[in-house]
Amino acid sequence: MTPENQPARSAPRPLDVLVVGAGPAGLTAAARLAAAGAGRVEVLERSVRPGGVPAYCGYGGFGTRTRPLTGPEYARLLTRAAERAGADLRTGVTALDWAPGGLALRTVGPRGPETVAARAVVLATGVRERPRPARLVPGTRPAGVYTTGELLQTVHLFGRSVGTRAVVVGAEEVAYTAADTLRASGTEVVALVTEATRACARSGTPLLTGTTVTELLGQGRLSGVRVRHRDGEGSVLPCDTVVFTGEFLPEDELARLGGITPAPGARTSRPGVFAAGGLTHPDGRAEEAARDGSRAADMVLEWLAEGAHRSE
Amino acid sequence: MTVTADGPLPPEPYDVAIVGAGVVGCALARELARRPRLRVALVEARDDVGQGTSKANTAIVHTGFDATPGTLEARLVRDGYRRLTAYAAESGIALEAVGALLVAWDEEQRAALPRLAGKAVRNGHTETRMLGQGELYAREPHLGPGALGALHVPGESVICPWTTTLAYATQAVRAGTDLHLRAAVETVTRDGDGHLLTTTRGTLRARHLVNAAGLGADTLDRLLGHDDFTVTPRRGQLLVYDRLARPLVRHILLPVPTALGKGVLVAPTVHGNVLLGPTAEDLHDKSATHSTAEGIALLRDKGRRVLPALLDEEVTAVYAGLRAATEHEDYRITAHPGERYVTVGSIRSTGLSASMAIAAHVTGLLADTGLDLGPVREPAPVTMPDLGATAPRPCERPGLVAADPAYADLVCFCERVSRGEIRDALAATVPPRTPEGLRRRTRARAGRCQGFHCGARVAELLREGTAHDT
């Protein structure tokens, strides 16, 4: 092995609390911990911008009734709160895996590979939507297949549109968000398709309930989706774009690599490791994730206090 | 260094034109690149190398232990295995010699194992060993209940199939081969002593012609007046499971083969995933590379028995490839000396393993058809990006990151792909033209989120990196 192939072997950098993920849960936990005097509190965010999912939800519906905010405004508010409280926010830093011994994580970021150790770790790694392959939807593998997450980032972060005619899979709130985003970026919404027999319909958007997407069609670019209705009748919806929405899954790689499972409250199977936000409640809203982060911070403070007693 | 994807083709005649830039065509181009006096064109219908059967297979380098002894395939797979494992080590192609276990699930299958061990010996493989139930479960603790024993075949390996094809093409192009993409061959006529190819991008002349057209090899062969074989595509559907499933399996787990084929296997991939497949469906449509509900259900049924915990993991890809099967059991590699033409047909499922040996064999046949190969000069070695899960990612290499911070800027988090790697791929000798091409070269958006987190940024980087192309 040449020297540049050697993994970092320097001593872990010590912290009091390491928060993984700067979404609503992580930022809120960090703000509370830093404000409560938990010591050196650091938040790692693998993305270049903090805020988690709200950072690219370029529309309203966040914040409180008295103070309504767009997603990015809400993300900025939480970010500022954490920084003002004294938490150290590091973006573009990915936690790769647990390092041997104690509560330590291997990370990579602009400063290169590093190992960080802490007295407590808060996993606030968020969610993803279940994409097409994991839903085992048969067919070809054409371009034009999205999740809401990719759609929102494409439109709100890069100012691009994704196609001309789109089918949206799902009929929950996130599906309507996808439909609104598609229309706002100049894409016609052919239909919302859901296996559920009942769903909340909204005027202007055709809704197909009791309907399953059975195949994606098209070579190179999507040409349509084949659907089957509950009565057994099949049809093809011509489109060049399909968005698979919802089915939120916890981003639990780091937890699983550490053999860590969530326990009641914000605790986990591993003492000193806590979990909050989408990781434990993948269907929760941003504000719920934030409240979750706040609760996790209380647990961490308790743990640190116990630890202080233990070391006395 | 020439790769073209549009515009007319060069008017000067080539010494050799290879039709088909799959793993076999690219391996042949690399082999001919050792002969600097030759002018070679590699002509491909699609917009990238390895876009047909070569991109959708089981990614296994076979030792040839179970080939039919005495066949050309048995000889070339065995020779190709030696060549490719050495080439992978030299070129940075991810390869893991995990070994295979032929697992017996009933008494009949267990009784068949000694016969398979004997066949392996006849193919020159003396290291196979019978494992009893206890040793089998010690090696594979997550194996489903009911297995009776296994035949261990050391040496069976997994490889990155995309990097392999790309390494061949890269080395060939750097040594002077012209790679012409998006040039589908429509007709071939005699042109003096050589051939005149009419393609979707105009005409191309060549003194010698090699047909490495895979699924289209029979059609091209007929254009030249031969009726030697008919390709009946055999579809293989496969499921790829998330990296978190990788600890569940250590070897390539094979069923005991039956008359119906090699059956459904479970295998680790060099990228750190677990593969389940393939199906074997004889079709007539050479474009039917879609997966089906029935195929997926069948694979999940088989997989549940072999490795029950696998089914709890997320699937990160479902794909289907078409093997170029014909009515012939063996490879159909034929020289037509009077026509200065060599057909490489019926490479149905071992093309990756045998590719370098096929290339050497075909080069000999080209000489038999009157081609003066000229002297040998070894082309400069290539170092490909190592996409293997066992190698440290560029972001984990302090020296590399210090020299170029772009390797620390992770774009695809699931697969740990940096902006630096994406930039390098876009500037490479054989660059990608589509998100899929970029994924095969870097793993960008190949992970469990499938672009939920990174897709928009990856697309933007691809757009920027290909902006100069038309």
Give a description of the structure.
- The complex is a heterodimer of chains A (312) and B (470).
- Chain A is 25% helix and 28% strand.
- Chain A is of the alpha/beta class and 312 residues long.
- Chain A folds into two domains: 11-128 and 248-311, 3-Layer(bba) Sandwich (FAD/NAD(P)-binding domain), CATH 3.50.50.60; 131-244, FAD/NAD(P)-binding domain, CATH 3.50.50.60.
- With 470 residues, chain B is an alpha/beta fold.
- Chain B folds into three domains: 2-55 and 162-230 and 327-368, FAD/NAD(P)-binding domain (3-Layer(bba) Sandwich); 100-154 and 232-323, 2-Layer Sandwich (D-Amino Acid Oxidase, Chain A, domain 2); 394-465, no CATH class.
- In chain B, 30% of the residues lie in helices and 23% in strands.
- Chain B has helices at 23-32, 72-91, 107-122, 133-139, 161-174, 217-223, 293-306, 351-368, 398-403, 419-426, 435-442, 455-465, and strands at residues 2-4, 14-19, 40-43, 60-61, 95-96, 100-104, 129-132, 149-153, 157-159, 178-180, 185-191, 194-199, 202-211, 234-241, 252-255, 265-268, 274-277, 281-282, 315-323, 332-336, 341-345, 410-412, 417-418.
- In chain B, the strands form five sheets. In chain B, strands 1, 2, 3, 10, 11, 12, 13, 20 and 21 form a nine-stranded mixed beta sheet that branches. In chain B, strands 14, 16, 17, 18 and 19 form a five-stranded antiparallel beta sheet that branches.
- In chain B, β11 and β12 form a beta hairpin.
- In chain B, α2 packs across α8.
- Chain B is globular, with a radius of gyration of 22 Å.
- At the A-B interface, α3 of A face α7, β19, α9 and α12 of B.
